[in-house]
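Query structure, 445 tokens:
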């Protein structure tokens, strides 16, 4: 092997490429989860409206549907492809692994998605135009399509954490990759969260109806309060199950910041429980500004840390526990005819094997040592640590405070041996370690 399958490095100064993923992902999740949650809520409301002959519920559904169209589907459809672009730049081999394992699952998901997008237009448009029974059936298929997109995507995303079965490595089969032990807890966890989100968003719309129809607004706010509590309870319950289905490396990362995570989750759950209970007890006090602020709260205090946590717990891997975050294949996967690249890198070094290294840096000399060291550090560490003095993302300087070249050299060797469960094992030839240590120590102040 004289070359390893690499792509050009996407280097994002200060914040790191992983944060770019996180930001796009968080916004997308807010939109997509709302849409799936709302699809289930829609089916429930349509059922009630039909069974109890409550035609007063239809205007609410129409408003909710319009909001969904604008909020979830526009934002969702922009940030969805946005994730593809960002992930392709930040983690090309991670995306490649997903495509190679799940190409037909993606294709199926897109069929559901297209149905979902057309469905939401049809639902809103046809509310008063077709008979109620047909409309009810339409909402059912819409809800099924929405949950279908979720179920398929979650199988894929769960594989990023780990396949969850050893069989995958020998068979390489899509179903072994898809049905890992954490797929279902992850799916239910997200369904719980979606239900909660549909309640949180539903409250914005029910409170907006206060002027025109205070009775109905209060009744619906109350209902949304119950929906929110149910969702919150399911999320918490399945989160605990989910945590028990994660690989060892995930627990290693989780333990580092366990206390603050658990504390902040408890505060958040407390806050939302209080919110829902207040809404149920005194629905008339709720207004649009408060209800809207709660969406922002859930975005910033709930989703962002949640996604960051999932991202960190996957470390050192980006997908399937065979591709590291630094884009190197770390183990053999006979089922996919994939070979670990670690032995070749240990022998020949990254500068020789990565096809995108400028020729002047292929061989380390006294003149180019710092530059080569900088490039090696970017290749090996920047996916998880900011290298800049003012960097915000797990900055390397804070982890190596006051270390001279010798100290950095020792750390690099330790990382190379795989002593830290959350960092990629990376054995390099001595001259490459030396160049990195020279560069990193020259950046300490
Ligand atoms: C896959 C992601 C990842 C990569 C790549 C990575 N690290 Fe880390 N590193 C982490 C995580 C996670 C932690 C632990 C949490 C923290 O310190 O914030 C960490 C911690 C550290 C620490 C503190 C060690 C400790 O736990 O006491 C040092 C030093 C460090 N990294 C250096 C490096 C260097 C040098 C590189 C490049 C060769 C590198 N890391 C590459 C994820 C990574």
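Result returned for the query:
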């Amino acid at each position: 092997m004289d070359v390893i399958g690499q792509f050009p490095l996407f280097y994002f100064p200060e914040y790191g490429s992983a944060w770019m993923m996180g930001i796009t992902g968080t916004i997308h999740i807010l939109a997509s989860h709302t849409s799936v949650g709302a699809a289930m809520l829609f089916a429930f409301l349509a059922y009630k409206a039909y069974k109890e002959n409550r035609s007063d519920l239809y205007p609410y559904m129409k408003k909710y549907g319009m909001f969904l169209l604008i909020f979830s589907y526009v934002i969702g459809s922009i940030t969805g492809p946005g994730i593809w672009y960002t992930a392709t730049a930040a983690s090309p081999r991670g995306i490649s692994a997903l495509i190679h394992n799940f190409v037909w699952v993606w294709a199926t998901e897109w069929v559901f998605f297209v149905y979902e997008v057309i469905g939401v237009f049809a639902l809103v448009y046809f509310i008063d135009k077709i008979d109620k029974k047909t409309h009810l059936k339409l909402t059912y298929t819409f809800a099924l399509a929405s949950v279908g997109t979720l179920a398929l995507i979650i199988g894929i995303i769960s594989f990023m954490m780990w396949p969850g079965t050893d069989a995958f490595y020998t068979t390489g089969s899509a179903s072994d990759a898809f049905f890992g032990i954490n797929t279902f807890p992850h799916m239910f966890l997200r369904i719980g969260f979606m239900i909660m989100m549909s309640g949180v968003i539903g409250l914005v719309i029910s409170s907006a109806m206060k002027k025109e129809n205070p009775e109905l607004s209060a009744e619906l706010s109350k209902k949304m309060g119950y929906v929110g509590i149910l969702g919150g309870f399911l999320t918490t319950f399945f989160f605990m199950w989910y945590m028990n289905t994660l690989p060892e490396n995930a627990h290693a990362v989780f333990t580092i910041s366990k206390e603050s995570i658990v504390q902040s989750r408890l505060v958040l759950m407390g806050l939302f429980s209080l919110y829902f209970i207040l809404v149920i007890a005194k629905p008339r006090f709720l207004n649009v500004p408060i209800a809207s602020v709660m969406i922002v709260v859930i975005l910033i205090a709930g989703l962002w840390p949640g996604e960051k946590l999932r991202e960190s717990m996957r470390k050192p891997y980006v997908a399937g526990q065979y591709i590291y975050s630094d884009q190197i294949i770390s183990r053999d996967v006979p089922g996919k005819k994939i070979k670990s690249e670690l032995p070749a890198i240990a022998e020949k070094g990254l500068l020789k094997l990565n096809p995108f290294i400028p020729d002047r840096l292929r061989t380390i000399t006294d003149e180019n040592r710092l530059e080569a060291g900088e490039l090696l550090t970017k290749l090996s560490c920047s996916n998880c640590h900011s290298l800049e003095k003012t960097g915000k993302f797990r900055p390397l300087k804070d982890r190596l405070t006051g270390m001279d070249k010798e100290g950095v050299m020792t750390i690099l060797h330790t990382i190379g041996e795989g002593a830290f469960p959350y960092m990629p094992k990376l054995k390099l030839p001595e001259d490459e370690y030396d160049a990195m240590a020279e560069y990193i120590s020259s950046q300490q102040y």
